[in-house]
Amino acid sequence: MRFKLMSAAILAAFSVCSQAGQMYNGYDSFYSAQPGAVFGDPVKHDSSVVYSDAGERGIYTEMRGSSDGKKVKIRVADRSITINGSNYRFADATTFPGERQLNLNPQSADVFLATLTGSHTRIMCLQGDTAGSGEADRRKQVYLLVNPLERKGKSTFLHLPSLFSSCRAVVTKDAKLVFPENSYLFDEAKETRIGLLISYYMFENGRFRRTDNAVRLRFTNPENPFEFSRQDATQ
After folding, report:
1. CA-to-CA distance for 62 and 47, rounded, in angstroms?
2. H/E element holding 17?
């Protein structure tokens, strides 16, 4: 899948202004509306079908897609993803500070493929759920793989922040891939969660670096993070 970069500053500014105050009932619709959103629909697969190999541990799901004209065969297990025969263990990904690598439920996995216009760089993103309790529905395991069809030494494998995370949250800014770390905003008493601060990061020179881009969301009702409006942003 290809996408167009929005390079004109006036278009980006207009988009930000038009989104301010708009109501959202979920994060995927919000992320998909952001300028420079990278991923569209996931690779099609039947999430009800899982496989297991005799003598091997666990189950896995399979799917097939294409990236810039090249066919891609994908196998997602609880601890790794295999792309055209190359296996990437989640434990080997460079993990965002404060995140933990947890086993993924293969049945919940979605995989997204895209190609960066101009550079022809292929990128892949995997998201899925883990078993948990409490507020586990607010977190996803998200892995970003740059140059997934290259040799392992030529690719970059990242484990992104999990709170209200999604592959659709990955965007481009100044022709670079950026992604959010989300954190709660509280009332003056520091007791009630009333919104979300979205701080964007990039991975550069082997480390995660915070950018100057940030967005504030305000929950329609305190403590309900799934209905919100966009309040402001820095570009």
Report:
1. 9
2. helix 9-19
State the Cα–Cα distance between residues 96 and 113, nearest whole angstrom: 21
DSSP for 102-132 reads: ----GGG-EEEEEEETTTTEEEEEEEE----
**Residue range 145-159, pLDDT digits in tens:** 999 887 766 889 999
The model's pLDDT over 47-103, given as tens digits with 9 standing for 90+, comes to 778 888 877 778 999 999 888 778 999 999 999 999 999 999 999 999 999 999 899
Whole-angstrom distance, CA of residue 121 vs CA of residue 154: 12
- The model carries a pTM of 0.86
Residues constituting the chain = 235
Place of tokens 């494998």: 157
Q: Would you state the structure tokens that stand for residue 100, as one six-digit string? A: 């933990």
Strand order of the sheet with strand 70-77? 60-67, 70-77, 80-83, 86-89
How many Å separate Cα 82 from the centre of its chain?
18
With vertex at residue 160, the alpha carbon angle to CA 111 and CA 112, rounded to the nearest 5 degrees, is 15
Cα distances from 12 to residues 34, 203, 220, 231, in angstroms, run 9, 23, 25, 16
